[in-house]
Queue: 2 jobs
Job 1
Amino acid sequence: MNETTPDATPSNFIRHIIDADIESGKHQQVITRFPPEPNGYLHIGHAKSICLNFGIANDYDPATCHLRFDDTNPGKEKEEYITAIKEDVSWLGFNWGEELYHTSDYFDQLYAYAQQLIKQGKAYVDSLSADEIRQYRGNLTEAGENSPFRERSVEENLDLLEKMKQGGCAEGEHLLRAKIDMASANINMRDPAIYRIKHMAHPVTGDTWHIYPMYDFAHCVSDAIEGITHSLCTLEFEDHRPLYDWFLDQLGTPAHPQQIEFSRLNLNYTVMSKRKLHELVEGGFVNGWDDPRLPTLSGLRRRGYTASAIRDFCSRIGVTKKDNIIEMSVLENSLREDLDAKAPRALAVLDPIKLIIDNYPADQEEMLDGVNHPKKPEAGKRPIPFAKELYIERSDFMEDAPKKFFRLSQGREVRLRFAYYVTCTHVVKDEQGEVAEVHCTYDPATRGGKSEDGRKVKGTIHWVSVKHAVNAEVRLYDRLFSIPAPAAEKEKDYKDFINADSIKVLKNCQLEASLGAASTNAYQFERQGYFCLDSVDSRSDKLVFNRVVSLRDSWGNKK
Ligand code: ATP
Ligand code: MG
C-alpha cells in the first residue's frame, strides 16, 4: 500500500513492542494512524509523529497508516487547515493511499456507543453548571463528590441526550458524563465528559448535531472502529490511558488498540504550541503560517528545508519516553548535510562593491568554467561570464588590513574563484570618504585560478560580472527568539523575546547570471550558505532568495 521507506529507520521501544506483538501472533498486520486536529498548520513536532506512524507503516508488511482528521471541534477547525495538513504529509514523503478518515465519519456510531453506555449504567446526563462541576471534581489531594444528577434513570438520560442532540438545550445546560469514580486518584477518571452541547454547524455534517464528542471518548472509539493496532501519542496522554481502556472495555469494541506514549519533540529558540503559533500569525508577529522563521512545515518548506533533512532529523532524535529539548542546531545540521550533498554551487555577492581590473580590456568578455559541485564530478561545469568590471563582497576588501587578512587589500594578491589572480592597486572613494571602487590588475597567466609559476595565494574570493549579474533581494533569517526557552519564561510574555534580527532583507544583491533561471531547489552560494528562491514572493523580474541555513553553526560565536 505505502511506498518503500524513504530512509532506513532505527528501531525504538515502540517498534520493539510491535515486533513482539507480531512474534506472539497478537497481530498479523499493523495499523497506525496520524490524527491531527485541523485547527492550525502542522509543525516540526507533528513531523516526529508523522515519521513515526507512517514510518512504521512503511517498514512493516502488511501495515498501513491512516490519516484521520480529528474534527470534533467545529468552532476552531477549517478546510484551509485540512488542505495544508494533507500537503505537508505528502511533502514529507508519506502516502495514506485510501486510508483517509474523519472522526465525523463516526458521529452516528459514537452516539450509539454513548447510548449503550447509558443503558449499561455507565453514563449520565449531568445538569450542574461548569463552575459546580469544577467544585465537585475535587483536586489532587481531595476526592471529588458525586453530582446530584448521577442517579438519573436510563430513560431520562436517553431522552435528555436525544434532546441535547436535537438542539433542545442551551449550551452548558447539560453534559453527558461517564460514570466512573469521583474519588479516583486519577482526575481523568472522575466522571469525565463524553458529549457537550455546541450549537454550531460542522463542515462535514452541517447542522445535524448540536452535541459534539469529547476527545477522550472520540479518540479511542475512532481508533477501535478503524482497527488501529498501536495508537501512538505523546506523553501528556499517559494519564488518559486508563480512560482510553475504560471506554473500550465497557463498550466491548471489536478491536482494542494499545495506546503507547512517547515524548514530544521540543526545540529550543522557537515555540510549537498551536495556540502560540496562532497568536504569532494572527497578531502579525510573523507573515503567515508559512513564514520561513516558523517551525511549521509550510514555513520550513518555504525557507528551503528539504523533506529528507526533516526525516533524517526525526530519525536521529529517535523515539523515547524521556522528555527533553532538542537543540535547533541538530535540525540545522541535518539540513546542512543534506544540502551539502545536493545543492549546486553558485557565486553570489550579497553586499556588493565594484572591483575594476585596470589591465583587462574594456571590450573583452570571456566564459570561465564554474564547478557545479566539488564532491560530484558528474554534476559538471557551467560557464560563468567574466569581464573588466566585477562585484565582490564589501567585506572581502579592507583598507588597513592586518597581516592575517587573506582577502583583498592594497598590494595583496588573491584568487578570484574559477578566474584569475588579481592584485589590488588602489581604491577610489566617494564624497563621504567611503571606498566606492577597488582597483586591481590581473595576471592573464593564471586563468582558471592556477598560476603557471607555482606561486600561491592564501585567499580565494567570489565575484560576479557587473554587466552580467542578476539583481536579487536576499532574506537572511535567524532564530525567531533570542532566548532558548521563550515559552518557559514566567515573568514575561514569550513574544517579548522575539529576535529583532530574525529577518534581515538585503535589497541589492548581485548574483551569477545562471541564477536568473534558478530552480526552486536550494543552491550553495559559495562561502555564504544555502539559499533558495522564495516560493511566494519571487518573480522572474524580481528575484527573492531565502537563506535556508548558513554554512556553519555561527550562533554560539555571535553570542
Ligand atoms: P499542539 O500541542 O502543538 O497544539 P496538538 O497535539 O494539539 O498540537 P494535534 O493536531 O492533536 O496537535 O496533533 C496530532 C498528532 O501530532 C498527535 O498525535 C500529537 O500527539 C502529535 N504531536 C503534536 N505535537 C507533537 C510534538 N511536539 N512532538 C511529537 N508529536 C506531536
Ligand atoms: Mg491535540
Note: Confidence is low (pLDDT under 50) at residues 1-6.
Job 2
Amino acid sequence: MTQRRPLVAANWKMNGVLATIRPLVRDVLQGLTEDIHAEVVICPPYIYLSEVSALLAESSVQLGAQNLSQHGAGAYTGEISAAMLLDYNCRYVIVGHSERRYLYGESDELVAENFVAASNADIIPILCVGEQLQEREAGNTEEVVARQLDTVIDKAGIDTFAKAVIAYEPVWAIGTGRNATPDQAQEVHAFIRLRLARHDDTIADGIRVLYGGSVKADNAKELFSMADVDGGLIGGASLQADDFLAICQATR
Ligand code: PEP
C-alpha cells in the first residue's frame, strides 16, 4: 500500500482583507514546525493570490485557488484562467466546491471541464464531491458521489487522477458545525477509492482523499486517523492561525 502524505488545505472562501490576511499568513508560517509532515495549502480569494504568493515564497506552504474557468482566454467577464493562476505560482485549485455547485449552478459537466483545464495546465485539482442532506437521508450518498466522480473520470480520463486530490465534503457538514462522524467519512472515502479502482488500482491507492465539513481542532485527529482519510479541506477553522495549526498537527 502507498504511503500517502497527508494534506491540509485552507479554503478561506470570501473572507479576509489585507489587514487580516497578512497576520494570518505570518502566524501560520511561524507556527508550522518541522514535525508537521502534512503538506499545507492556502487557497485565498483570487484578488489576494499575488499577496499571498509573495508571503509564501520562501516557505513550504503551497498556494491554491478556489476555482478557475474552463476556458483558456477570451470574453468571459469575471473569470480567471489556469494561465493566470500559474502566474502566481498556484500549485492547486479547488474545483466543484459545493458552494460553486449549489449557489452558482455549476453542473457536474462544468466541474469536469474545470478539472480538465486545471490538469492541462499542470495545476493539481482538488475535486470536491459530496451529497446534500436530503440525498443522505434518502440513502443516495454513494449514488451522488459516484455520479460526480464518474462525470470527471469520463471527461478527464483516469490517468489525470494520478495528479489530483479528492475532497469528500458532505454538504450538510459544511459551515454547519455538524461534521460527519469518522465512520461516516471513512465509509465514503473507501467508496471513492473503490470507484477509482474500477479503472486503476495504483491511482486509487495513491490518491489523497481529504475530508471537509466542520473540521475543527477538536475533531480533526479522530477524522484523520481513519484509514482512507488523508487530511482535510478546512473552511471556517482555517481563518484562525491557532485552529488551523492544530488541525495540521492532527495529521501526525
Ligand atoms: C469548505 O469550505 O470546504 C469547508 C469544509 O468549510 P467548513 O470547514 O467551514 O465546514
Note: The two ends are 18 Å apart (CA to CA).
